[in-house]
TrEMBL record:
Xref: CDD domains: HTH_ARSR (cd00090)
InterPro entries in alphabetical order: ArsR-like_HTH, HTH_ArsR_DNA-bd_dom, HTH_MetalResp_TranReg, WH-like_DNA-bd_sf, WH_DNA-bd_sf
Keywords: DNA-binding, Transcription, Transcription regulation
Protein name: Helix-turn-helix transcriptional regulator
Gene3D superfamilies named among the record's database cross-references: Winged helix-like DNA-binding domain superfamily/Winged helix DNA-binding domain
Organismal lineage: Bacteria, Bacillati, Actinomycetota, Actinomycetes, Mycobacteriales
């Protein structure tokens, strides 16, 4: 029997500004946040980025560890969503500013959502 360890998600009070901003310092991660900003939970297999699957997994882990996203596992499938409400409680206005700047500066547009297998 294979046991899968549960991902740790920091509580809003445990989120650290420097960790959040460091996680947002990469254009691929900003693109992932832009995709997830619609509030929908996405299967990892739906996410499209110009990087290897292992690199995409790394980017998703960095976002999760900083508290920016929440990952949920269902069998062999993983789903991710933006923790917008938690971030807005902890850092009011930060996500709105990041998203507005990303749109204005055209950051993260290489990341998107596609059809396909959402198992990982």
């Amino acid at each position: 029997m294979v046991t899968m360890k549960q991902a740790r998600h920091p509580k809003p009070g445990e989120m650290v500004l420097t960790e959040v901003t460091a996680a947002l310092s990469d254009p691929i991660r900003v693109g992932l946040v832009r995709v997830l900003a619609d509030g929908r939970e996405r299967g990892w297999g739906e996410l499209r980025a110009p990087v290897a699957k292992s690199t995409l997994s790394h980017h998703l882990r960095v976002l999760r560890d900083a508290g920016i996203t929440r990952t949920r596992q269902e069998g062999t499938r993983c789903f991710v969503m933006l923790r917008r409400e938690d971030l807005d409680v902890r850092f009011p206005g930060l996500m709105a500013a990041v998203l507005a700047a990303a749109i204005a500066d055209d950051v993260g547009t290489q990341v998107g959502v596609g059809e396909g297998d959402s198992t990982r």
